[in-house]
Amino acid sequence: MILLIWLLSIVHGGLFILSTPQWEGIDEAFHYGYVQHLAESGTLPVFGRTAVSKELVTSFRFAPVSTVVNANLGNLYTSFPDYWSLPEAERKARENALRKIPSSYRAIPDDSANPLMNYEAQHPPLYYFLCAGIYRLFSDSDQPTLTLLLRWFSLLIGSLTIPIAYGVAKEGRFPWSPHFVPLLIALLPMFISTVSRISNDCLGVTLFSCLILLVCRYINSGFSRKYAVWIGVIAGLGLLTKAYFLAAIPPIAAVVLFAGFKRRSFALSARHMLFVGFVCLALSGLWYARNYIHYGTISGLFVLASERAVLPGEYLGKLFEIPWQAGLEIIFRQQIWTGNSSFIGLSRAIYRSAYLLFFLAFLGIGRIYWCRIRKKELGVCRDTEPPDAMVLFYLCFVLGMLYQMFSTYVATGRIVTGGWYLNAVVIPGVTILVLGLSALRPRSGGRIRALLVAYVLLINFLAYFCKAIPYYSGFIIARFHLSHFFELYSPANIGNILDRLSLNKPEFITPGVIGVWILLYVMMVAAVLIAPGARRRLSAERTNLLRRIPGV
């Protein structure tokens, strides 16, 4: 069953890849620019000094970009609404020009009067080293093909989160099937869009998920030294992927200290802390030393490295000035569905219902701890320590995001954050959601889980078929109604949608390929939802048959 769910996540990612225009993934063009610079020059980019390539800037002239991205680029290029107002012949001419951008432009930095600097140069290099190998392997391909291949490579890395989630669920020993949390994750459109675009998030999510699995196994193994060393390895690789792994340090330290308390040996805590710290520092220390040398900050975040210095006295005033509620709303809204770089969001009712579910889940988690203090059994989890570790990781990550948001606000006066970063803790997040809601109504666990699946399927349907696919095929509808759905996907119009989705894709991605993939995705969702019931029925029939056989 887990292999089927894993395959579903890959097919789901393929739907995103094939239906989403080039550079529409959040910051995708600049992540591509990082990979390209590394592959072409063999050197790491430096924030504020490394410009993107002439090829990348040229591609902006031919492929449409979102209104938000275009505004950030000085409104020099064509947004999606303007692109679809162009004559069809001009769109086709641009598509041909995009495929024929000279490969020599890849090694040439933007040579315009105001070169476009790559702000993603701030990131650690591990993901980009991996992608540079794929880039070099297919360097004879045109840009749309390279973009597609790098997206698929990212998806394959990110999809590993699904079997890891299955492992975490088994370690947690919850009273529901270990397939349930992986299934919800595989259906989440925001998770899939995060790991299917060209971005280091795919590797960051997978490594963070692996770290949580190792921590759970460390706890369940009786605090084995082997797992302590592996925690250090994965944390070190994580710090070479995303700076947000700094938020994992406090929960790791807390778990290792708990090991000493549980085993009544703080020498054990000290040894394991040294193992984790030494391995982690050996793997990632040089990168963070480089950050401090180049930017004056350990994390290397450009908004902190490039803005004015802040006096210590200013922090207290900003603490009460920053709109915390708006920041939290952005974080949780963007975890549900962002709408890629075009920020084509869902209705307020969808987001508010999600906020309500989160709120109720946190109340449920509070009830679990309250009942534990009163030594009352709720029956929603058989073991307490792995779930406690997941709650700790989730809270520390959210606090880390709030700290980053606050530091950025102090430096710039703006709220800058991204809810998609919460996909790093998607396994604890979804587990907390299921566990918390189940704690409020322990006897209704099955109905609660069915409700969550239905809600995620609704978000999935609205995000793709009512928002993204119509928008990217030129049908920009402010308030989408059911009548629009039947009109857009009518036999007379579906061919037009598929034809437009295939624009600016590699030549082998035809309208027919996209149409077949959409059907495959719908069939995979149906198969995964039907499979558990069919399996139970077959098992029951087999049991009944065996009972009828004499002597069995």
Summary, kept brief:
The protein is mainly α. It is built from 25 helices and no strands.
Report on this model:
This protein has 25 helices and no strands. The protein is globular. The chain is an all-alpha fold and 552 residues long. The protein has helices at residues 2-19, 28-41, 54-62, 67-72, 80-83, 88-99, 126-137, 143-158, 161-172, 180-187, 189-196, 201-220, 225-239, 249-263, 266-295, 302-306, 312-321, 324-336, 348-373, 385-412, 426-440, 445-472, 482-488, 494-501, 511-548. It has one domain.
Q: What distance lies between the first and last C-alpha atoms, to the nearest angstrom?
A: 28 Å
Overall domain count: 1
Largest sheet: none
Q: Tally the helices: what do you get?
A: 25
Low-pLDDT segments, ≥5 res: none
List the helices and strands and how they pair.
Layout: H1 2-19, H2 28-41, H3 54-62, H4 67-72, H5 80-83, H6 88-99, H7 126-137, H8 143-158, H9 161-172, H10 180-187, H11 189-196, H12 201-220, H13 225-239, H14 249-263, H15 266-295, H16 302-306, H17 312-321, H18 324-336, H19 348-373, H20 385-412, H21 426-440, H22 445-472, H23 482-488, H24 494-501, H25 511-548
Helix pairs in contact: 1-8, 1-10, 1-11, 1-25, 2-7, 3-6, 8-11, 8-12, 9-10, 9-12, 10-21, 12-13, 12-20, 13-15, 14-15, 14-20, 19-21, 20-21, 21-22, 24-25
